[in-house]
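Monovalent cation:H+ antiporter, CPA1 family structure dump, as promised
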Amino acid sequence: MNALQIGTLLIVFAGVFGAVNHIVFRLPSAIGILIVALAASFCVLGSRPIDFGHLP
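structure tokens r here:
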């Protein structure tokens, strides 16, 4: 992906997160977008397989 595509993707995600905040949470925009982005990042982290091979 080039820089233009990454920038476009970030703008689209911000719009979707803002819409979710407006419809579901009805919080101030900065706080709502932060909470939705945090939840999305936790979902991405949770979808990765857990690898305990690096632990002693």
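The chain is about 75% helix and 0% strand.
lmk if u need the other ones
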